[in-house]
Amino acid sequence: MLDEKLARIRAHRNNINRNRRLERTMLSDIERQFVERRLAEEQTALEALRSRTFSVTLSVPRGSTRPSNMGPAS
């Protein structure tokens, strides 16, 4: 499962890089709009996949201001 998600992340990154390279070329207005839209879609999809794949949940017990293994505050 993780391998599949990492492969999808790589594919999105490759698509983003390809679209960025295309942006630096001579494009018509319609082509540029298409490339920019695809770039935005790929970036959105990449961020969503990253957040689902590498979600980290941190919780602090109620009434606690610092972890007990860090010693007293200075």
What does this structure look like?
This protein is 64% helix and 0% strand. By secondary structure, the chain is mainly alpha-helical. The chain has a domain at 2-10 and 24-52. Helix 1 runs antiparallel to helix 2 (29-53). The radius of gyration is 20 Å and the shape is elongated.
In short:
With 74 residues, the chain is mostly helical. It has helices at 2-23, 29-53.
Give me some keywords for this one.
mainly alpha
Count of extended strands: 0
Tell me the distance between the termini: 44 Å
**Number of helical segments?**
2
Quote the average pLDDT: 86
User: Helicity, in percent?
Assistant: 55-70%
Unreliable segments of 5+ consecutive residues? none
Question: Beta-strand level of the residues, as a percent range?
Answer: under 5%
Structural class: mainly alpha
Shape: elongated
What characterizes the major β-sheet? Answer: none
SSE topology string: HH
Give the radius of gyration: 20 Å
Would you spell out the secondary-structure blueprint of this structure?
Blueprint: H1 2-23, H2 29-53
Helix pairs in contact: 1-2
